[in-house]
Design brief:
The chain has 212 residues and is mainly alpha-helical. It contains 10 helices and no strands. It is elongated and about 60 Å long. InterPro entries: ISR_Activator, Sel1-like, TPR-like_helical_dom_sf. Keywords: Signal. This is Sel1 repeat family protein.
Length: 212
């Protein structure tokens, strides 16, 4: 049996509101942390770059007010940035539920990183892990190496997806190619377990040949 691969927040570099619900209100920040905990590189430049400038200069609540106004119009970047704030509890009371709802809205609005963030957030909650598959698969389709890694581990375990070593190898190889060093060990282990049929299917997945 393969060792159970761990998927920690540090390793993954981390990283539900109803759709009709408005973004949650900014709370007085007794829990507020430094804006430096989310560097500007982790934010998306919105239509109004003033918000990012305010954020990086420590005017967190002013930035959040701008994003909340933009989020009401369905702005994907603003929704994503609000989700980042709620996930880490910067300027607002931390809430993974609120963050998940906002990431989901951002993903539906077309934000390129929202599926990955949402999938990882749901995966780390055992009670919502089954929900993570849909968003991780979308993120992997967008070349997220972290999503590939988690999906590879899930395929090895047969966790909420059928156990399939050919698919596991595909995902884990993508993760390794993308620099996820933690994917090397499970990849080496499954290659020792793969049957000739598994290896043929793995080649077919890479080449696009019909699966048998």
């Amino acid at each position: 049996m393969l060792a159970r691969a761990s998927v920690s927040l540090a390793m993954l570099a981390l990283a539900s509101m109803a759709h009709a619900q408005q973004p949650p209100a900014v709370r007085p920040a007794a829990v507020q942390s430094s804006a430096n905990q989310i560097p500007a590189s982790e934010l998306t430049i919105t239509n109004d770059e003033l918000a990012v400038d305010q954020w990086t200069n420590g005017r967190v609540r002013d930035a959040l007010k701008i994003w909340m106004a933009q989020a009401k119009t369905g702005d994907a970047d603003a929704l994503y940035n609000l989700a980042q704030a709620f996930r880490l509890g910067i300027g607002v009371k931390p809430s993974e539920q609120a963050a998940a709802g906002l990431y989901k809205k951002a993903a539906l609005a077309g934000h390129p990183s929202a599926n990955e963030r949402l999938g990882i957030l749901l995966y780390k909650d055992p009670s919502r892990r089954a929900e993570s598959v849909e968003y991780l698969e979308r993120a992997a389709g967008g070349a997220s190496v972290r999503a590939h890694y988690i999906l590879g581990v899930m395929r090895v375990r047969g966790e909420y997806v059928p156990r399939d070593l050919a698919f596991a190898q595909l995902h884990l190889q993508c993760a390794v190619d993308g620099g996820v060093e933690s994917a090397r060990r499970p990849l080496a282990q499954i290659r020792m377990e793969m049957t000739p049929a598994d290896k043929s299917r793995a080649i077919a997945l890479v080449t696009g040949s019909p699966l048998k």
